[in-house]
TrEMBL record:
Residues 1-21 form the signal peptide. Its main location: membrane. The gene is lptE. Belongs to the LptE lipoprotein family. It is a lipid-anchor. Together with LptD, is involved in the assembly of lipopolysaccharide (LPS) at the surface of the outer membrane. Required for the proper assembly of LptD. Binds LPS and may serve as the LPS recognition site at the outer membrane. The keyword Iron does not apply. It comes from the Bacteria. Component of the lipopolysaccharide transport and assembly complex. Interacts with LptD. Pfam families: LptE (PF04390). This is LPS-assembly lipoprotein LptE. It is found in: Cell outer membrane.
Length: 166
């Protein structure tokens, strides 16, 4: 009888905690943007632009193809990926690389006033290298760049959501 009461009490407690509706803002992947429509000045073939569009369309913000119809415009000032030697082994061969992904962008309103000045996001990841596993390391490098791209999109969304409307 005592065990049954405890089980029922724990079940009620667990149900009440899970039903309160508490969650962190943006933790479900949706952000409240201070504008209803946005134009993204990415090239059509940009994987970063495609992923950002997909994430924005999941919320209440409409991504428009004509900048004249948008309340906000995200301008890409520069986007670059880099790979540099991080360390060498005792024979002078590469042991580690440093992968970088840098994006500089700004956000303007319909009238051209800056809502968010030039903002640089710089991501870095290190990758070990072994010349006997070149194909595997190339796949790992591509995976790390994809991971950095996803991280970059989330950082852009957070910055867009933090814009104070004028």
């Amino acid at each position: 009888m005592k065990v049954l009461r405890r089980a029922i009490a724990l079940t009620v407690l667990a149900a009440s905690l899970s039903a309160c509706g508490f969650h962190l803002r943006g933790s479900d992947g949706r952000f409240n943007m201070p504008f209803q429509s946005i134009y993204l000045a990415f090239p059509e073939t940009s994987p970063l632009g495609t992923e950002l569009k997909r994430n924005l369309r999941g919320g209440d913000t409409e991504v428009v193809a004509d900048p004249a119809l948008a309340q906000a415009r995200l301008d890409v000032m520069s986007e670059s990926r880099g790979k540099a030697i991080l360390s060498l082994n005792s024979q002078g061969r590469v042991r580690e690389y440093l992968l970088t992904y840098t994006l500089v962008f700004r956000v303007r309103d319909k009238a051209g006033a800056e809502l968010l000045g030039p903002t640089e996001i710089n991501l870095k990841r290190s990758i070990t290298f072994n010349e006997t596993e070149v194909l595997a390391k190339e796949s790992e490098e591509a995976l790390l760049y994809r991971d950095m791209q996803t991280d970059l999109v989330q950082q852009i969304l957070r910055r867009l959501a933090a814009i104070k409307p004028v």
